[in-house]
Amino acid sequence: MSPFVVERRTPLPVAEAWRRLTDWERHTATVPLTRISVLTPPPDGVGTAFVARTGLGGAGFDDPMRIVRWEPPVDGGPGFCRLEKTGRIVTGWAEIDVRPDDSGTGTGADTGSWVRWREELRVWRLPGAFDAVTARTGRLVFGRAVDTLLRGE
């Protein structure tokens, strides 16, 4: 497996950071050559399923995922989500953790948020010798995705 972690601080309130990070279809604009399709009706929660289709033209692969833990923030408290990757090509999991941040990134009573995106993945038929490269690539790609989503682009 190729584990990686992306951590960010943002002046956004917890609820807004959570909303932006769990707007699955918006991830399409942040991950190159990937389109996200949500397969279940809103609202999101345990059992929500979606597919990230990565490819160019007819060549590509699907990365189906399902939410197995869903704890949205309440009254400025933390939020946590765990996704399980259920496909044949990419397996593993991802966790999104959003917490209040009192390190001074916010203004006034709003303390801002601390975000941690943890992921562990394996790509079918890719030898374990490539785990470090896969983790480094994941950190770069998802770091950019988190930055873009938190900026609201």
Helix content: 10-25%
| Mean of all residue-level pLDDT scores | 90
Overall structural class, as computed from helix and strand content, comes to alpha+beta
How much strand content do the residues show?
A: 35-45%
Uncertain spans: none
Give the overall form: globular
Largest sheet: 7 strands, antiparallel
Tally the helices: 2
Rg estimate, integer Å: 16 Å
Q: Note the gap between the termini.
A: 31 Å
Strand order of the largest sheet: 1-7-6-5-4-3-2
Output the helix-strand order: EHEEEEEEH
The number of strands is: 7
Give a brief description:
19% of the residues lie in helices and 42% in strands. The chain has helices spanning 14-21, 131-151; strands spanning 2-10, 34-38, 49-56, 59-71, 79-86, 90-100, 113-123. The protein has a seven-stranded antiparallel β-sheet, covered by helices on one side.
What does this molecule look like?
This protein is an alpha+beta fold and 153 residues long. The chain contains two helices and seven strands. It has helices spanning 14-21, 131-151; strands at residues 2-10, 34-38, 49-56, 59-71, 79-86, 90-100, 113-123.
List the helices and strands and how they pair.
Blueprint: E1 2-10, H1 14-21, E2 34-38, E3 49-56, E4 59-71, E5 79-86, E6 90-100, E7 113-123, H2 131-151
Antiparallel strand pairs: 1-7, 2-3, 3-4, 4-5, 5-6, 6-7
Key attributes of the depicted protein:
alpha+beta, 153 residues, seven-stranded antiparallel β-sheet
